[in-house]
C-alpha cells in the first residue's frame, strides 16, 4: 500500500448552534471572522450551514455551523472535540479580553500550554473555544478580514483541536498514520479532565495541532458541541491514499462525497470522534466572486431547483456589516 501524503492539518471544524442570527452576530461581529458561505446542510436542507473564515476562505480557517434550533443543549464528553483553538498574533490577548468584556463574552483566565498563552472562552451556545497567541510568519497563508477588528489582532485560522477520549492510544496510532507527529506531553490544566495532554503536529502551519486528553466523562451532541473535524487532503489522490490508510487501521471510511466546495470522506475514528478528509478544491470562490462571498444563499447542485421551497422554510437572517454595526451604536 502506498504511504499517504501527510495531512497539512485541519481543514475546517463544524459545530452545532441554536439561533442562527445569534450565531452570525457573534462569529462575524464579535470575533471578526468573515461569512464566506451562506448555504444549507446538504443532508438536512431545512437548516442553514454557515461558514466563517479568513478574508479568502483559506483552508485551515473555516469554522462552520449547523444552527439546529430545535436540538437541546449539548454536553462535551468523551468521543468529542472538546475545544477548538484559533491563532491570534502575539500581544493581542489584551485586546480580546477587553472586547469580550465589551460584548459580554464568557471567558476564563489565561493559561500557559506548551509555552503558549491561551485564552479560553465560550460562544453564546456554550461552545468551548480558545485563542492562542503565536508568532504569525510573514509568509503565512491566511488573509485577515478586517471589517470589525484590525489586522494586528485578527484571528488567523486554526491553532488546534482537543479530543477527549476514553482510550487515547488507538486514536494516537491513527493520527500517526495520517502524518501527525507526537511533539510533547504535559500536565492538563484548566477545566479539562485527565492527567496528561499529548500534542500531535501536522506538517502545515495553520491548524497544525491535535491535542488528546483521556477522559471517561459522558457527553451528548447538541448546541455548543462540535459535530466533526475535517483534515486537509489537498488532492483527490491524497484523499484516496489517506482513505486506504485509514481502512488499514480497521476503520470504515465512506466513499468520496461531493460537498460542492470540497470533496469529502468521513470516518468515525476509534474513540468516537467524526473525522472528515477534505480536498482543497474547488473552494469557496468556485460559485461566488471573492468580493461577494457570503452575500447570498448558495444552494449547491440540484438544491437550486428547490430554492423557493427551501428559502420559505429558513428563518430570515441579517449578516452583520461594519455600517450596520455603527448604526446600532
UniProtKB/TrEMBL annotation:
Annotated signal peptide: none
Disordered as annotated region, ranges: 304-329
Family annotation (SUPFAM superfamilies): Glyoxalase/Bleomycin resistance protein/Dihydroxybiphenyl dioxygenase
InterPro entries with a match to the protein in the record: Extradiol_RC_dioxygenase, Glyas_Bleomycin-R_OHBP_Dase, Glyas_Fos-R_dOase_dom, VOC_core
Domain VOC: start-end pairs: 9-134, 157-280
PANTHER family for this protein: RING-CLEAVING DIOXYGENASE MHQA-RELATED, RING-CLEAVING DIOXYGENASE MHQE-RELATED
Protein name, per record: Glyoxalase family protein
Species whose genome carries this gene: Haloplanus vescus
Amino acid at each position: 500500500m502506498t504511504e499517504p501524503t501527510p495531512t497539512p492539518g485541519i481543514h475546517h471544524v463544524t459545530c452545532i448552534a441554536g439561533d442562527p442570527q445569534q450565531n452570525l452576530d457573534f462569529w462575524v461581529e464579535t470575533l471578526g471572522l468573515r461569512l464566506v458561505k451562506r448555504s444549507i446542510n446538504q443532508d438536512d436542507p431545512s437548516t442553514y450551514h454557515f461558514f466563517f473564515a479568513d478574508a479568502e476562505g483559506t483552508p485551515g480557517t473555516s469554522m462552520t455551523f449547523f444552527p439546529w434550533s430545535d436540538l437541546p443543549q449539548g454536553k462535551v464528553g468523551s468521543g468529542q472535540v472538546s475545544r477548538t483553538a484559533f491563532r491570534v498574533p502575539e500581544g493581542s490577548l489584551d485586546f480580546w479580553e477587553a472586547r469580550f468584556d465589551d460584548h459580554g463574552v464568557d471567558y476564563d483566565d489565561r493559561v500557559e500550554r506548551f509555552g503558549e498563552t491561551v485564552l479560553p472562552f465560550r460562544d453564546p451556545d456554550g461552545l468551548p473555544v480558545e485563542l492562542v497567541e503565536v508568532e504569525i510568519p510573514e509568509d503565512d497563508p491566511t488573509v485577515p478580514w478586517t471589517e470589525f477588528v484590525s489586522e494586528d489582532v485578527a484571528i488567523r485560522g486554526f491553532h488546534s483541536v482537543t479530543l477527549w477520549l476514553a482510550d487515547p492510544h488507538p486514536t494516537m496510532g491513527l493520527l500517526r498514520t495520517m502524518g501527525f507527529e507526537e511533539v510533547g506531553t504535559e500536565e492538563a490544566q484548566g477545566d479539562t479532565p485527565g492527567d496528561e495532554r499529548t500534542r500531535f503536529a501536522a506538517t502545515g502551519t495553520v491548524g497544525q495541532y491535535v491535542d488528546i486528553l483521556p477522559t471517561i466523562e459522558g457527553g451528548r451532541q447538541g448546541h455548543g458541541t462540535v459535530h466533526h473535524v475535517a483534515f486537509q487532503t489537498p488532492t483527490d489522490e491524497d484523499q484516496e491514499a489517506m482513505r486506504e490508510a485509514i481502512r488499514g487501521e480497521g476503520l470504515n471510511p465512506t466513499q468520496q462525497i461531493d460537498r460542492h466546495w470540497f470533496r469529502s470522506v468521513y470516518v468515525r475514528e476509534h474513540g468516537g470522534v467524526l473525522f472528515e478528509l477534505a480536498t482543497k478544491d474547488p473552494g469557496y470562490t468556485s460559485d461566488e466572486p471573492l468580493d461577494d462571498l457570503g452575500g447570498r444563499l448558495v444552494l449547491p447542485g440540484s438544491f437550486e431547483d428547490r430554492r423557493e421551497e427551501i428559502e420559505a422554510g429558513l428563518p430570515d437572517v441579517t449578516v452583520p456589516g461594519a455600517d450596520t454595526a455603527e448604526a446600532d451604536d
